Amino acid sequence: MDYNKNYIGELFASEVYKKIADIEKDPVTKKYLYKMSQMEKKHAEIWRQMAEKRNIKLGKLSLFDKLKINFYVIFRKIFGLELTKRLLESGEESDIKKYYELSKSEELDEEEKQKMKELSIDEVVHEEMLSSIKSKDVSDFVYGISDGLVEVLAATSGLSGAFNVPFLVGIGGLIVGASGTLSMAIGAYLSTKSGKEISENKRKKVEIQRLIDRKEVEKKLSEILTEIGIKENIASNISPQLIDAAEEIIAPRTEENPKKSALITGLSYISGAIIPVIPYLIGLGGALGVISSYIISGMAIFIIGSLIGLLSEVKPWKKGIEMLILGISAALATHGIGMLASHYLHITV
Question: Are residues 33 and 101 in the same domain?
């Protein structure tokens, strides 16, 4: 058992959460992060006591560890808390399992085994605290960048197969990106607004129905409770007590802002759309322009894919490679179509 490694690991985690908490603006999230930092510090202290009991000398955080801590802080500032949280929590499940197995280790005495059980429980709580920190805006932004990047890469690749003037390819890509931005933003606005309107209308209907026919509302509440796993007889007994909060259960209020949703969607899409057109706008044409566009776009697709992997709890590198293959394949296919159009339709610009 590597006491020093475990001690340093807990010390490292404590410092990461503390540093991120220091820059967090939301008071509730800040409180959660400081609490997790304290938990990890307590774990480090337990490992220190166990090591001293065995006369094992412990080290300190290395320069590399401190650089990694700074990396997490910078990552938080650039990509937001949601992605940082995903990155941090990716190893929590193994910690739960590790401490549970250590609680049965013959190398430890009974008191130490009990402490390992407590640490295992702490890690479960730790994971739940992390899962309570959510930010839908970040995930929407990442997916929006991905859409804009892949679609405009395919468009510019196709245009470069038909046109020889790099500036025209770049302008064409920007036009595609601009139209996509407007389309996506308007779609996000209408979708979010429609969702809010449907929710509000449903809440009003429930409110009116509660005044006219309370029994029918109680029946609906009972059906909802049964659907989530509560036994039918218990659901029937509970539903009359929930009648005054029927709207919140049957038609929960949505807090999404249509304007904010449109803004995030539009900004994210155009942010991705700009990347593939950069080489053409600076005058790179022919094979050099195409290759340059593919290289910078491929790197961006891999990074965005990795971030999506974090959000969807899939191995980041695996998701990055998958998106890279799909994105480049789509672009190559479109490029081939552009070349065929240029050849058979005799388009030369």
Answer: yes
Question: Does a structural domain hold residue 349?
Answer: no
From 50, 47, 51, select the one nearest 9 (Cα to Cα). 47
Containing structural domain, residue 309: 137-189+258-344
Quick one: tokens of 16?
Answer: 């990461």
Angle between helices 214-227 and 166-212 (to 10 degrees): 130
Whether the predicted model's global pTM rises above the 0.85 cut: no
Q: List per-residue pLDDT tens for the chain, 349 residues long.
A: 788 888 998 999 899 999 999 988 878 788 888 888 998 899 999 999 999 888 999 999 999 999 999 998 988 887 777 778 777 766 555 677 778 788 888 888 888 888 888 887 777 776 666 665 555 556 667 778 888 888 888 888 888 877 778 888 899 999 999 998 999 889 888 888 888 888 788 778 877 877 778 888 888 878 877 877 777 777 777 777 777 777 777 777 666 788 888 888 888 889 889 999 999 999 887 788 888 988 999 999 898 888 777 766 677 788 888 888 888 887 778 767 767 766 665 555 4
Per-residue CA distances from 327 to 243, 299, 319 (Å): 51, 11, 12
154 and 292 both lie in a single domain: yes
Number of domains in the chain: 3
* CATH at 63: 1.20.1260
